[in-house]
Amino acid sequence: MNEKADYTKDQGDTGPQGDQGAAGPQGGQGDPGPQGDEGDQGIEGIQGIQGDQGDQGDTGPPGTTTWSGITDKPTEFNPDEHHADHELSQPGEINLAGLSGVLANEQLSSWAQVSGKPTSFTPAAHKASHQDGGTDELSVAGLSGLLADEQDAGKIKGVIINDAAKADTYVLAYDLSTDRIVFIRPQAAHIGTQWLEVAPTLNSQTHVRSIVVYNSKLYGCTRAGGRLFEWNDVDAWIQVAPQLGAETDIRTLIVYNGALYGGTSSLGKLYVWNDIDAWVEKAPQLGAETHILSLAVYNSKLYGGTIPNGKLYEWNDSNLWVEVAPQLNGQGQIQSMAAYNGKLYGGTWGGGRLFEWNDSNLWVEVAPNFPGQTDILALHVFEGGLYGGTASGAKLLKWNDSNAWVEVADGINGQTAIRSLHIFNDHLYGGTSMGGRLFQWNGVDAWNQVAAQVAAHTYILGLETYNGKLYGCTTPDAHLFVHVGLAPVQEA
Fold first, then answer.
1. Phi and psi torsions of 175, nearest 5°
2. Domain with CATH 2.130.10.10 in the chain
3. How far apart are CA 115 and CA 102, in angstroms?
4. What is the pLDDT of residues 200-222, one digit of tens each?
5. C-alpha to C-alpha distance for 409 and 346, rounded to whole angstroms
């Protein structure tokens, strides 16, 4: 083994190259190589002599902007199919050869209504101009007829928000009352709750006690500054009346004889708004009554229910309260009032009773305490009956028109009180505490929750219908919410 390794250890020098052998037979042809670059084009030949011009033809009839001037027109125009062409960017052009001007609005159902038309119309290019926020403005001023369905969708789809701050914090919505596109500010915490905040706290007010529609605007009264707020119809409260004197709380609002009134505490006064910027006192405190908890209009007169002695006051339409019913059965608070079947009723705190005024000088008890319920916080007339919202069980009671309350809905989801009652879209709604929820009565025997609590808002103290939507005012933080769940919403 060692000797063999020695023989192969070093290679000798290469010898001289031998003579070239004879050429072998030619191999087969290989695959063709890539084609070379094309050579320069040859010199173009000389153009031939132009022939004589032919005779001009007869002048045709004047052009038209009706269908008769369009070639390759369809037998009918279907807005839905036209819209589908836009969405799917179908190939092909609508040939409008011979027409001039700018297309006013391709969404019309009749070309005859369009003033000025392009020579051609490409759906894909048109769609791109919408999506890219083209600067061309589509005007339909003065036009009539049926519009294609994408016109409505275009109210939102065709708008580009160039303001980064708005794009980050606002969304676009269609306001039915003004027929305009508006910015609204949604809150992340509201997702899935069915409440949408439309006005946050203003001037450190912690409660909006009551809301009411007056002169086509929505107003709220406050604590702890006894102020009057007007909603700006978009996203904020505007203060229109500051605190007057020592009154810290406007407990309730009502519209009476074309003016907006508020009942106060802690001095039990009556205020009227001057329709500009201030409260005006119309009735001072009477006796020891410190709060006007409830206001009602009955037989063309204005009435107030009081604390701490549960009295009934009538305003003299000038400058004074007049006592028309003293305390009854130890009930210290007339928490709610309503006119029903030609009589005036009051719901009490501390015993949950129902009082009827005798139209002269006394309360008459017509329903005693319902077991377990201590307060009638809200009264409302609905479908020919008188209903009361209670604490401390968030029940809905109906008066039997004689001598007793009848339970028609028990509290749900841990709510302790029905703070407000209101009719909206032919249903009866209740605003609650301690969870600030919205209930809808099923018309028979139960509440259904339609809006959950938002953040720390534990009370829905007032409900009101405004411009076809249901609004609720809250504590703490004195916010305004709109219900965006079961209520029908005008979509853009």
1. -95, 110
2. 181-483
3. 8
4. 999 999 999 999 999 999 999 99
5. 21
